[in-house]
Design a protein that fits this description.
With 263 residues, the protein is of the alpha+beta class. The chain contains six helices and 14 strands. The strands form four sheets. Strands 3-4-5-6-7-8-9 form a seven-stranded mixed sheet.
Length: 263
């Protein structure tokens, strides 16, 4: 089955925006916080967004299976074409709880282990990042007095020798291995950012590199990786291999680096 990724991107963007609305409805009031088995927080907003996304994706005619962080047990594997949806209904729950705005909705389409479509919506910041293979990568600023139109984005390219690298890192997950990696990189400025927004900043050329030397799951990265790759960047393991989603039964990613250039 051949997919029209351009058409699908528009439909998935709509679903992600609806999930963002559900999140903001909770964000506007007091909400309860639970603790999952892995000690990570879970809020009403996570589940509200999950329900919206599941309903939206399951209503699409393609019938592609869905792997969501909030319902891993229902996922039975990729379809016969090697496709599945990869969803984080609310990435950056800690940032949501802190109310700093740096949280996102992530929806990716995986095909043969690669993210070929990605939508990242930051509802509090009123910004979206979209990408699909052979369609391009885009940023949409839909806040007040903004056009709401898709603006093409591209990575910045490799910094010239002797210049300072613009590095983004995790706001809520510091890593002891990071200091050593940064020392090898050379002169740099480090900016902490929450959720998948780190990858999106690379994609739009606002940062040069994002080293993640700590644990992440597939759903944390899939959608934003699609955006980075279609914007001309790359997401690689420390061994230089492209970060893969071919084995969804293994939920954890290896350590990786997001580069704002192609070589």
């Amino acid at each position: 089955m051949t997919l029209n990724l351009s058409e699908l991107l528009t439909k998935v963007e709509r679903i992600a925006l609806q999930a963002g609305d559900a999140i903001m409805a909770v964000y506007a009031r007091d909400f309860y916080i639970e603790e999952k088995d892995d000690k990570s927080p879970l809020t009403e907003a996570d589940m509200a967004a999950h329900r919206v996304i599941m309903a939206g994706l399951q209503a699409l005619p393609q019938g592609i299976p869905v792997l969501s962080e909030e319902d891993v047990g229902s996922f039975s594997g990729a379809d016969a074409d090697g496709r599945y949806w990869l969803v984080d209904p609310l990435d950056g729950t800690k940032e949501f709880i802190k109310r700093n705005g740096e949280f996102t909705v992530n929806i990716a389409l995986i095909e043969s282990g690669k993210p070929v479509l990605g939508v990242v919506v930051a509802p509090s910041l009123e910004v979206s990042y979209l990408a699909a293979k052979d369609v391009g990568a885009f940023k949409v600023d839909w806040g007040k007095e903004k056009s709401g139109e898709r603006q093409p984005i591209h990575v910045a390219g490799k910094p010239a020798e002797g210049t300072t690298w613009r590095v983004v890192g995790s706001r809520s997950h510091p890593s002891p291995d990071l200091a050593e990696w940064l020392e090898k990189l050379g002169s740099h400025d480090m900016v902490p950012v929450g959720s998948s927004l780190k990858l999106c900043l690379i994609a739009e050329g606002e940062a040069d590199v994002y080293p993640r030397l700590g644990p992440t799951c597939l759903w944390d990265t899939g959608a934003a990786q699609a955006v980075v790759e279609q914007a001309g960047g790359r997401v690689e393991t420390l061994e230089g291999e492209v970060l893969s989603y071919a084995t969804p039964a293994e939920k954890l990613n290896p350590y990786f680096v997001v580069w704002g250039h192609s070589d």
